[in-house]
Design brief:
Layout (H helix, E strand, L loop, with lengths): L10 H23 L1 E2 L6 E2 L1 H29 L14 H5 L4 H19 L6 H13 L2 H12 L5 H5 L1 H24 L3
Antiparallel strand pairs: 1-2
Helix pairs in contact: 1-2, 2-4, 2-8, 4-5, 4-6, 5-8
Membrane topology: Multi-pass membrane protein
GO molecular function: biotin transmembrane transporter activity
Keywords: Cell membrane, Membrane, Transmembrane, Transmembrane helix, Transport
């Protein structure tokens, strides 16, 4: 299903896209503020929200929602996890989590691409799609962390290993949600 979200789109379609993008950005903000006790570190629900947005909105709309979310954060709104306590705006984004924030865009759009290709029709395909899209957050995140702190540091121990179990759980939940929504969506 093609997403006609551009300039030539019907005004009703543009209003629908705007509402979905703003709603997606709001979902990301709310999911950043929810901290779930987990082992070995507490987790937020952000990456699960990213996957659900991608699976339901498609690559273009979910990408726009993430870009709006990042723009709000860059402008100083306390939309990120740990803000305003750990700083706000570009100063926060340039810190250790900056690369992971960039990975949000890749993750949501990749999940949207998988959904557009029909991967959310069954759990057998949605689970690997969700895990791959979840992993997309970590590629720029770990590269950024290494560039910022030094690749001679235990980057994987700081930026990956503590989040693997939670990431898999969130990917499984997002895949189940996506399949359930696909099955109940009007045709």
């Amino acid at each position: 299903m093609a997403e006609n979200t551009g300039i030539g789109a019907h005004p009703r379609r543009l209003a629908e896209t705007a509402a979905l993008v703003v709603g997606g950005s709001l979902l990301l903000t709310l999911s950043a503020k929810v901290s779930v006790p987990f082992y070995p570190v507490p987790m937020t629900l952000q990456t699960m929200a990213l996957l659900v947005l991608g699976f339901t909105l498609g690559p273009a709309r979910s990408g726009m929602a993430v870009l709006l979310y990042l723009a709000q954060g860059a402008a100083g709104f306390p939309v990120f996890s740990g803000t305003p306590e750990k700083g706000i705006g570009l100063a926060y984004m340039m810190g250790p989590t900056g690369g992971f924030l960039l990975g949000f865009l890749a993750s949501a759009m990749l999940a949207g691409w998988f959904a557009a290709k029909g991967w959310t029709r069954s759990l057998w395909r949605a689970v690997p799609a969700a895990i791959i899209a979840e992993a997309a957050v970590f590629v720029p995140g770990l590269l950024w962390l290494g560039a910022l702190l030094g690749f001679d540091k235990p980057i994987l121990a700081w930026g990956l290993y503590p989040f693997v179990l939670g990431g898999v759980v969130k990917a499984l939940l997002a895949a189940a949600i996506a399949v359930a929504l696909h099955r109940t969506a009007p045709r």
